[in-house]
From TrEMBL:
Protein name: Protein GrpE
CDD domains: GrpE
Keyword hit for Chloroplast: no
Quaternary state and interactors: Homodimer.
UniProt feature, compositional bias: Low complexity: 15-36
Database matches in Pfam families: GrpE (PF01025)
Record field: compositional bias (Basic and acidic residues): 1-10, 41-55
Biological processes annotated in GO: protein folding
GO molecular function terms listed in the Swiss-Prot or TrEMBL record: adenyl-nucleotide exchange factor activity; protein homodimerization activity; protein-folding chaperone binding; unfolded protein binding
GO CC annotations, alphabetized: cytoplasm
Entry's family note: Belongs to the GrpE family.
Keyword Chaperone: yes
Ranges for region Disordered: 1-55
Amino acid sequence: MSEETKKTVEETPAEEPNTAPQAEPEAAPEETAAAPETDEAEKTDGKKKEGFFNKKARELEAVKAKLDAAEKNANQAKDQLLRMAAEYENYRKRSTREADQKFNDGISFAVNQIIPILDTLDMAANAPTTDENYKKGVVMTLDKAAKALAALHVEEIEALGKPFDPNFMNAVQQIPAPDGQESGTVITVYQKGYKLGDKIVRHATVVVAE
């Protein structure tokens, strides 16, 4: 061996044996690294839930808006129907009153044409006669006429012995009150009066005691 080779060997230090313990791999970093992934997942789930609830809330608001609109339309339709029903009822009542008025006017006109005939028959029935069959026939005719007037709701105005009422009677004369008669009492009826309900067909013509 040459001198240079020996020097090289001597100068090179001997390697010391590696007696230091090996460091174990640390698990914490792995766990620390896993935490952000969990947070991200939770955030994602939270956003999904939040989006789901927001969507449901919007759907509920839309349904509520539709219900409110439907209720408003229903109320408007109800009000319109009630107004139409009220208008129809008013029209029906008005038409009924007008029809009744026309009917009563027609009856009044017809009765006014017949009353003079009844006046004549009444005078004939009260006139003295020896023909009883004739008088009986006149009275029977007056009875039938009275029934016909009653069927038409035409009533004779009661005047004889009643206090004078200008709403139903016309006084053509006043005479001193006979014995037993009060002043203002009807003592004679010249012409019978008739009424149809509250409508006067003809006023009674009377004589009143003073």
